[in-house]
Design brief:
The complex is a heterodimer of chains A (105) and B (431). Chain A is mainly alpha-helical and 105 residues long. Chain A is built from 5 helices and 2 strands, in the order ββααααα. In chain A, β1 and β2 form a beta hairpin. The longest helix of chain B is centred in the middle third of the chain and has 19 residues. The chains are: A mainly alpha (105), B alpha/beta (431). Chain B: Keywords: 4Fe-4S, Electron transport, Iron, Iron-sulfur, Metal-binding, Transport.
Chain lengths: 105, 431
């Protein structure tokens, strides 16, 4: 199993860089994963999106539809892409500690 | 685990075309430079002939007289569990079935066919990589590979319709759902609906400008057919049947497949053979429809709205395996002001490394990124700032390559770049 080390924090991840055990997620891990997705600093806006995805995942064991994410956080599509340059699936969901989604993602 | 089942499966697959591809390799090695895996690693194990040899050893052992009697003499080999694991890493992990080696082989050996046969054999003994298998199973269970429900789909379409209305400034602009007798059924993918709706909005805008009579189906909204890659023919056939049924039910003339290479290939070139019928509708890629609008003057584009240098990536299943490479270039000639060709391109394009279901297989992500390096070099040589690819799978891979190799480019769907250049009715007098 591959490991990544960011600022002294060692994480077990899959080959795509998603954390192997979604239950161990915490804010420190989110910060570390953010760096792998080109997000150097997690602002309040980032946290709003990340926490929304995380809570949705804990409730439904799946990532939210982009429509729900935009409607419930109040961000437009464009703003989401500005916050997470690699997009909602590989960017935001990875930082929120979700497993990799199925399909060509 | 019984590996005999896989050998029996191979027996059922041995037709003239496959036997010829298994028999005639002259080991000339010309194929090596055609393969992006070999180009990236320079490792002989990535030569297409070497990969195909993995299956040839089994073929000789069980289906040729010398191989049966004196396997050692002809490099034949028993198909045991250990060998099955090695075959899995080759067939699933180091070939995207892009078929660039096939068109460069002097003997015309179809290594893509050999690799797909090996995948199907492994599928027969339940050895499809788990992450790919999960996508196939979810498709069969829910109708699409991300498990999006009909309710979620309908809510999203309503939301996208609002965005379309804002974009075109017309509160009457519609995304018609389940409209019987429409001319075109647009077959999207769950990725577009769940995660990446920008290209959907762009396409809806193009349909709006063209005055197209189009619709989407709330029953089936997944152009992808991951079973084409897992080697599970029965499941690939089932998904194609569902798409066919949804299309027939709406009575449309054209099934327009979204910007997805393999989904188009599966429906356009494979499905009628799988289902043993001639479809009562045309299967087209949306690029073909856009091309029709652009060349007939049904939509007008202003290339000065896309001034950044643009290059075009040919998805293997569109260009090499689908014959569509002139159309996108004729579109881009009218949509952007600075177009730059990669070398090589068209039918000789290099695979981005994400094809063949590679993006769905987490286990091989690292080698997928490594094998994408030749594509990165091609893109960088053009000094383009936008890379257009009419395939969401290629786009995701190109995004990953961008991140890994720090490419200073945007990755864009063809519909997005066209929508950006679109001169809407009423705007013309301002130009």
């Amino acid at each position: 199993m591959p490991q990544i080390e960011i600022d002294g924090l060692v994480l077990n991840v899959d080959e795509d860089g998603f954390i192997e055990d979604p239950t161990i997620w915490n804010e420190e891990i989110a910060k570390a994963l953010a760096k792998t997705e080109g997000v150097t600093e997690l602002t309040e806006d980032h946290w709003k999106v990340v926490n929304y995805i995380r809570n949705y995942y804990l409730q439904y064991q799946i990532a939210p539809m982009i429509r729900k994410l935009c409607k419930d956080t109040g961000f437009s599509l464009k703003e989401i892409y500005e916050l997470f340059p690699s997009g909602p699936a590989k960017g935001a969901c990875k930082i929120a500690g979700l497993p990799k989604p199925t399909g060509c993602v | 685990m019984s590996t005999q089942k896989a050998v029996d499966f191979l027996k059922g697959r041995l037709n003239k075309k496959l036997i010829a591809s298994l028999e005639v390799c002259a080991h000339c090695g010309i194929c090596k430079d055609s393969c992006h895996y070999y180009r990236a690693s320079q490792d002989p194990v990535h030569t297409p002939a070497y990969k195909a040899e993995k299956l040839r050893k089994i073929y000789r052992r069980y289906f040729t007289p010398t191989g049966k009697l004196f396997p050692g003499l002809v490099g034949a080999r028993d198909f045991d569990e250990e060998y099955a694991r090695e075959l899995k890493d080759i067939a699933f992990g180091s070939c995207t079935m892009c078929r660039r080696c096939t068109i460069n082989c002097p003997m015309g050996i179809d290594t893509g066919l050999i690799v797909r046969t090996a995948r199907a054999m492994l599928a027969a003994i339940n050895m499809v990589p788990a992450s790919l298998k999960a996508g196939v199973d979810l498709t069969i269970e829910s109708g699409n590979n991300m498990g999006v429900t009909r309710e979620e789909f309908l809510e999203t379409i309503e939301w996208l319709e609002e965005q379309l209305q804002d974009e075109v400034g017309d509160s009457k602009a519609k995304i018609p759902v389940d409209k019987k007798g429409a001319r075109v059924l647009y077959m999207t993918i769950p990725l577009e609906v769940k995660v990446y709706p920008l290209s959907f909005i762009a396409l809806a805008k193009i349909f709006y400008a063209a005055g197209e009579d189009w619709t989407v189906s709330s029953k089936m909204f997944d152009a992808t057919n991951l079973a084409l890659f897992s080697g599970e023919d029965d499941l690939a056939r089932l998904h194609a049947q569902r798409l066919r049924d949804a299309t027939v039910e709406l009575g449309v003339k054209v099934l327009a497949m979204t910007e997805c290479g393999h989904g188009f290939r599966a429906m356009r070139w494979e499905a009628e053979n799988w289902l043993g019928e001639k479809f009562p509708f045309e299967v087209r890629h949306v690029v073909e429809l856009i091309h029709e609008y652009v060349t007939s003057g049904r939509i007008k584009l202003d290339p000065s709205r896309n001034t950044k240098p643009v290059t075009y990536h040919d998805p293997c299943n569109l260009a090499r395996n689908g014959g569509i490479y002139k159309e996108p270039r004729e579109i881009l000639a009218r949509a952007v002001s600075d177009f730059r060709e990669m070398s090589p391109s068209g039918v000789e394009n290099l695979c981005c490394g994400g094809g063949g279901g590679m993006l769905a297989m987490t286990d091989y992500a690292k080698s997928r990124i490594a094998a994408g390096k030749p594509k990165v070099d091609q893109i960088m040589a053009t000094e383009a700032k936008e890379v257009v690819a009419p395939c969401h799978n290629c786009m995701v891979q190109l995004q990953d390559l961008k991140k890994h190799y720090k490419m200073p480019v945007n990755i864009t769907a063809l519909s997005e770049i066209v929508a950006n250049a679109l001169v809407l009715p009423g705007e013309e007098k301002n130009n």
